[in-house]
Structures are given as structure tokens and as C-alpha cells.
Specification:
The structure is a single chain. By secondary structure, the protein is an alpha/beta fold. It has two domains: 207 residues, Glycogen Phosphorylase B (Rossmann fold), CATH 3.40.50.2000; 158 residues, Glycogen Phosphorylase B (Rossmann fold), CATH 3.40.50.2000. The chain is built from 13 helices and 13 strands. It has a seven-stranded parallel beta sheet. Strands 8-9-10 form a three-stranded parallel beta sheet, with helices on both faces. α3 packs antiparallel against α4, α6 packs across α11 and α9 crosses α12.
Amino acid sequence: MRLKDAKVALVFDWMTNMGGAEKVNLKLHQMFPKAPIFTSVFNKHKMKEFAHADVRTSFIQKLPKAKNHHQWYLNFMPYAYELFDLSEYDIVISSSHSCSKGIITKPETLHVCYCHSPMRYAWDNWQEYIKSYKMNPLVKKIAKKKMHKLRMWDQLSSDRVDYYVANSKTTQRRIEKYYRRPSTVIHPMANTKDYKTAKNTKGYFLAVGRLIPYKKFDLIVEAFNELGLPLKIVGTGLMEEELKDKAEPNIEFLGYTPEDELKKLYSECEALIFPQLEDFGIIALEAMASGRPVIAYREGGALESVAENKTGIFFDKQDAVHLKGAVEKFIKTKNSFDSEEIKEHASQFDEEEFERKLSKYLQAKWEVWTT
């Protein structure tokens, strides 16, 4: 059977807001438009890009406030994914940073997992996650106990995957460490041709993402409070009010921003501020596709997408002092960055290249599977 004749299903983690993983999921949906999507929770109002997709949700969808607070039900998710009936499909592609890879397939079914990361909150960052998230102390205590069982399930369910694709070398190392499995790296993508570069910048710096602890927006606010330079922050999240309370008037919070407006913000900014440790980091790629440099923490996926002193500047310690120093260095050297050269660098991560590589990979694995 040829790959295009195989019956395919897609399995995603919760679909509650658009982020980097969700952009990959959208591309998978575009590659396999007839494939149904199985997921724990779907908020169609925040995921309008999937309005015409065949989305099939778990029982968690009907639980109170699940569409906006899926984190409350993390303990139920392993069971939810195991309940999905995928017996009629030849190929299942899971896109996972949480529980979606834990689905159960029959022996004849090929299961390929595009892994964004093994569960961050269960493995290397689990203590930091629980410590930094604002929640009831009793809930934190319960979470620590529950995390042990979730970690056991995550490791055991990793064996249900036939082949892993990692979104970066950082994730590849984590898959090897925690799952003891090999993987192939295929980097995420952006539609780089769809991003334009403005003739002139508007003097502000830009930060984009969910306002949650591990994204380190608190470092950005602290550094720019001291710098006094214009900063625009795009995104929402549980730290939003706290960050607004701390921010000086030079920092502007834009909240949710439509895609077209975000592209304009990218194109007119001086540089993107990227202080978090990401598995890859599509936001940095989108900024570079707009011809704008990135000021990034020297860890994780940024090392695979940002070319030092060509498309951005790195700082070595994840604190406000080092971030501030990197911004000051950038201001002194910003004329050395060439927008066209930055755009050219970003083009190697175009979505057409992603589709070509992933299609070739799936075809090869399918041929081996059916031989």
C-alpha cells in the first residue's frame, strides 16, 4: 500500500490556544486534511484555524471549565488518550509534548510521534514548574505526589511509539535520556515567504509568547525597567497581571494580537527578546523571517535556529543582568545585522522544507513497515 492510500489519524495534545506546537499541528492537518484529529480538549473559539477539521475530543471536553483550564485535568489525560479507538487506521501520527503519544494502537498500525519534548513538568523541569506556578500550596503538595505516577506512565507509554521524530537536538537528547529511544530531528517551520521586512524599524523591542513562568517574561520586564527602552509584549497568561504591576511605562502589553498585526510588529521591531529555554522556538524563527535579529538565551533550540552575530546575539545566564547586557551590546552593534541575510537564514526552515522532509521520512518508514 502506498502512503497516500493509507488511512491516517492525527493525535494532538489539548487544542486550547495557538502556540508553536499548534502551528506544527496545523501543518500536519494541512498535509493530511482527511485525517480525523483526536485530542483531549478543543476550544474552537481560540483555534479557528481548525474550524473545518474533524476533531474528536475525549470525555475531558465536557468537564467544568476544561476548555480554558485543561491543566486541572492533567491527571485524567493518560486514561483519556488510552480510551481513543484507533483500530481502523493504518498510520497514527501523534504530535506530543504531554500525553498524546500514549494512545494504544493495534500491532499492524504504524505510530510515528513528532515529539516537541518529553513532559517538561514531569522530568527535567518538574520541580521548577511546581515551584514557579502560582497555585494553592495544598494543590502543589498533591501535584508532587501525583507527578510520580504520571512520570511512570509517561516512561511506560513511550514504548508504544514505533518511531520518534524530534523537533530539535535538544529534544532528541531528552528522548534518549528519559525514554531511551532514538529519534530523527526534523525542525519545525514557519511560512517564511509570508513574512515581510519593513524599510525602517520603529525603535521598540518585542517579546511574544504565553505569559507563564518558564517563558521568563519576568526577566524581560526587570531588564527593560532598568533599560527604559520601549518594549511591546504580545501574549496572555496567568502572569499577565503580575507583570503589568511590575512594569514601568516604557513597557506596553498588547495581549492577544491577530496574526497580521503580529507580522507587522515583527517587521518593525529592533529585535526580538527571547530569554526562555525552548525545545526549538518558532517565535524566534518568525522574527528572523521578518528580517529582525533575536536576543536569545544560549541554550536549547535557539542554538539551532539563531546564528550568532549574524541573525542574533546570545547571553549566557538566564537573569536580568545578562539580558540587559545583551540588549546594550545589540544597540552598539545593530548596524552590523543585515535584514536580507537574516531572512535568507530563516528560509532554510520554510514550511515547504518541513513538509518535504517529513513526507520523505513517513514514506520511508511506511515502506519498511509494510515490507
